[in-house]
Design goal:
Oligomer: single chain
Shape: globular
Strand content: 15-25%
Number of domains: 1
Helix content: 40-55%
Order of helices and strands: HHHEEEHEHHEHEHEHEHEHHHEHHH
CATH architecture: Alpha-Beta Barrel
CATH superfamily: NADP-dependent oxidoreductase domain
CATH topology: TIM Barrel
Largest sheet: 8 strands, parallel, barrel
């Protein structure tokens, strides 16, 4: 902790007192002097609330890329790629009812596992799906029929996790929906309940209403540190864990974009996917492209030191943050593969100097909590 406090003294001496203490608080969280070596090096984590629990891999295969915009998905190749990820120990998959064929692909995949792998291997596979309903009246029958569709598509009798999203907080129907989902959990149709893109205020309201939430999926990266400013504190008080996405920013946090000048046409890779376009907007909200290049170079220096890639460092940094249980790494199933780099994240051990170096560059950008709002506010 002494080196963390030294970094805080530097911040305090270079800022106004009020700003300095705020930045120091963030730095102490981001420099992560709160986790044991055993916790940091764990390959799996248990999400818990009361009697509800689910063991997931800390690196989760994100399946947003199956929804279109990343290339045509061949079902057979995609399922084979899912098997390859699972065989490599990457056994948790995140999807949604609105990610194109994602739930169907999981159904095909889980049947391959049932046929071709031993029962103990099947037990390790976890499918985390989302329900993103239209803002209609949340009746018990409507909720039940919606979840029945996911059960059928994924070909399971019980969902390992159902993560719930809601567009409009002024419509309190989200509480009705969650209470019906909790009933389905009691019936055994859902094993654990999570949220996606809920802010701190609404998470607290949901917990106060007795809904047994185990996790909240939020955007979190080396530039988007909003979850560490409000959300993580509530999570530490309640035991709710964070699952992060956007952690490699659709591929922007990679060697591919290092030393690239986007102002020169055709001089480098194009922003040709929905995720690259989305996270370039986050870069613009956080700071300039030149500052982003400083961040990439910092990550590259650390990656070279450890013999890994920039994305591995970027994900490990976020995994080291308070209350983060797991991070999503998007998979372009059957189109490209980064299994080796992804597995390297789980054995990577960033030292305090690595963490401080990244934090210092990250904090040179704008405070996104002020610029955008709390977790998920960009969707409302």
């Amino acid at each position: 902790m002494s080196s963390c406090l030294f970094f805080c003294r530097k911040l305090l001496s270079s800022s106004s007192p009020a700003t300095g203490w705020l930045r120091c608080h963030w730095a102490l969280r981001s420099a992560r002097c709160v986790s044991t070596t055993e916790e940091k090096n764990a390959r799996v984590v248990t999400l818990k609330n009361g009697n509800d629990s689910l063991v997931i891999c800390r690196i989760i295969n994100g399946m947003w890329q199956t929804s279109g915009g990343w290339g045509t998905i061949d079902s057979s190749a995609a399922v084979q790629a899912m098997l390859s990820h699972a065989d490599a120990g990457l056994t948790s998959f995140d999807m949604s009812n609105h990610y194109g064929p994602a739930e169907d692909l999981y159904g095909f995949f889980i049947n391959r596992v049932r046929r071709e792998r031993p029962p103990e291997f099947l037990e390790k596979i976890k499918g985390l799906t989302k329900w993103v309903p239209s803002p209609v009246k949340m009746t018990s029958n409507y909720v039940r029929e919606s979840i029945k569709t996911s059960l059928k598509r994924m070909d399971v009798s019980s969902l390992d996790m159902l993560q719930f999203h809601w567009w409009d907080y002024s419509n309190s129907g989200y509480l009705d929906a969650l209470k019906h989902l909790a009933d389905l959990k009691v019936e055994g149709k859902i094993k654990t309940l999570g949220l996606t893109n809920f802010d701190t205020e609404r998470l607290q309201i949901i917990l106060e209403n007795g809904i047994p939430i185990v996790s909240n999926q939020v955007q979190h990266s080396v530039i988007d540190m909003r979850p560490q400013q409000k959300m993580a504190e509530l999570c530490q008080q309640t035991g709710v864990k964070l699952i992060t996405y956007g952690t490699v920013m659709g591929g922007l946090l990679s060697e591919k974009f290092l030393d690239v000048n986007l102002s020169i046409p055709f001089s480098g890779p194009t922003l040709n996917t929905p995720s690259l376009k989305k996270y370039k907007r986050m870069v613009d909200a956080w700071g300039s492209w030149s500052l982003f290049q400083v961040l990439l170079q910092t990550l590259k220096n650390i990656a070279s030191k450890h013999g890994v890639s920039i994305p591995s460092v970027a994900v490990r940094y976020v995994l080291n943050q308070a209350s983060v249980a797991g991070s999503m790494v998007g998979v372009r199933l059957g189109l490209s593969e980064h299994i080796k780099d992804t597995c390297a994240i789980l054995s990577l051990d960033l030292d305090e100097e690595d963490m401080r170096s990244i934090t210092e560059v990250s904090m040179n950008g704008r405070d996104l909590l002020k610029a955008i709002g709390d977790c998920g506010d960009e969707y409302r």
